[in-house]
Every structure is written in structure tokens, then in C-alpha cells.
Amino acid sequence: MNNFRIPQTRQGWLQLLVVAAVLGSGWIFYSRDSISTDTSTLATAPLPGALAPDFTLTTLEGESITLSDLRGQPVIINFWATWCGPCRQETPHFQTFYEQNHPDVVMLGINQRESTSTVINFVEEFGMTYPVLLDENGSVYDTYQVFGLPTTWFVNPDGVLVSVAPGGITAAFLEDQLSKSQN
Fold first, then answer.
1. Which residues of the chain have pLDDT under 70?
2. Helices 171-181 & 85-101, crossing angle to 10 degrees?
């Protein structure tokens, strides 16, 4: 019936451990997938120092904005949603910053997968005057590998990503990052 006995000695436990290690290693070896050496299908994460992934999105007014067309100016890209608490807290900072720094800096607020009417209500509530773009299918969100909202990317005038700030940010942080993005 049951021929397995619990080891009673240190040597018995050691033998059991060795058998388990051998079996486990064999299972890992034989169950692993073959590793492809083709890297052409691997996604690349946007990283500071790399060229910002290009995109074209539509504003609430129906205007198309393409990131690469904005070269020559620092750009702040803020991923947000109306239901996001930290987004609601930082939006007044973005609006004030925009009013003080426009047209020397471009600000883009990219909303994530929400209806136009929901976004318009939010924009009106906060008096947002900087461009708000609709990422209706989340493709730009995915390209920039945003894992939480809000997330803000800073792009220098050459189109290079300078830094990323996950989470809510303050006006002082915006000023600091702008000075880094202009260099």
C-alpha cells in the first residue's frame, strides 16, 4: 500500500532532498519552452535617453497631434483618467504650470480609454486649457508601458525621453523636470 516512510535521520532527509532536487531539475529542464533568439518581435520599453515613441492622437476638438511634429520644444506627456485620485490632485498643478510656461513647453494630457463626454466634464471641472488627447484603444498607453496612473514622461526638444514620473507630481517637480528637459 504505502511504502513511503518519513526519514528518521539526517542522512535520510539528505537523501530525500537530493532525490527531490534531481527530480525538480529534470522537470524544469524537460518542461521549459524553447528560447527564441529572434528579438524582432520583442517589445522595447521606452527608457530615458531613448527617442520617445511617436504617436498621433486626436484632441477633444478633433485636431490630430503627432509627437514628432513637436520637436524643437520640450514636451510633457501626462497619462491620466478621470477616476484616478492622484490625477485629480495633480491636474491643477499641470494647469497652472501650463499657464505659466506656454508656449515654451508643450503639455499633452493623454486620457485612458474613457468616453469623450466623461473627459469633457473633467476638463471643464478643472478648467484645463492644454491639449487633452484621447487614447481610446490604449495603444499609446501600451507603447509607453504605463502600469499605473498618473504617469508623466518628460521629452527634450530633440524628442529624447529625459525622465518618467510614476504617480502624482507637484508644481515644484514640474519646474525641476522642465529645467532638465530643456538641456
1. 1-2, 4, 29-44, 183
2. 50
pLDDT at position 35, please?
46
Q: Could you tell me where the DSSP H helices lie in the chain?
A: 10-31, 85-101, 116-126, 139-143, 171-181
Cα–Cα distance, 31 to 45 (Å, whole number): 29
Classify domain 56-181 by CATH number. Answer: 3.40.30.10
Whole-number Å distance between alpha carbons of 56 and 104: 21
Mean pLDDT of the chain: 88
- The sign of the dihedral angle between the CA atoms of 94, 98, 104, 108 is positive
Per-residue model confidence (pLDDT) at position 64: 98
pTM (predicted TM-score) = 0.75
CA 74, 111, 132: angle at the middle one, nearest 5? 55
Cα 86 to Cα 101: distance, rounded to the nearest angstrom: 22
